[in-house]
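Proteins fold reproducibly. Take a tokenised chain:

. . .
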Amino acid sequence: MPDDGASVPSDWADIAFDGRSIRIEHQWLRPERAQRPLVVFLHEGLGSVSMWRDFPQRFCEAGDFRGLVFSRYGYGRSTPRPHDEKWGVDFMHRQAREALPALFDALDIGLGRSRGKPWLFGHSDGGSIALIHAASFPDAVDGITVLAPHILVEDVSVRSIEAARQAYLETDLRSRLARYHDDVDSAFWGWNDIWLDPAFRQWNLHALLPQLRCPVLAVQGEDDEYGTMAQIEGIHRYAAQTALLKLARCGHSPHRDQPASLTQDAVRFITAHTSYLK
């Protein structure tokens, strides 16, 4: 696991989700750049604010953007998932359609509140949540960048997630992840149990993707252990405005494996497609 490179202090927002109040850890980056595009970073299935390290800060500096990084419910310093709560097959849809809009409301983000609409920058599960949100609320975002997103469940994904379960039970993975989450078991089992549930094998975004209207940059590493190029090529098939970025010598985390190439292409894409900068 990478070292914790977060240096910006976290704040908390209270949102209503699933019939109760949830505390969401978040950090604002470069808030003084109020006239520049806002990029909202959505982490991976085991991620959090601190797991991003300093990539969001460096990315926002490179593009002269503002940024927002947050830990979803069950992750980081946000409210943990109760251990007896099992997430359903629709857990990413609920994050995209319920939790994310609630957070935007709490932080006064959105059309008519701050200049322009936000960009979503999602990794893995966070990329899928970005796709669902943009397709469900086509007027809510200016565009999205998705790294190693999931639009269907592949055999390679299941094999790698099974391997992660064994590593969590048999190696020091649990102790390493514990640095990034207040309740590491809540974070790990919430993610792992639903991805390995047989009912989840039928999950996909095929019916939703044609509803995408915004610009999309879809990024995949050639050596991604959790998915193949079918993921981003499928997005392009359903949403022709999607630009594809395929990175050599890159696994499941392009922002760690190829940060310079990713930053260069993604900054250029966001700058070129931000509506009020044209």
Observations:
- Residues 102 and 244 are 30 Å apart (CA to CA).
- Confidence is low (pLDDT under 50) at residues 1-6.
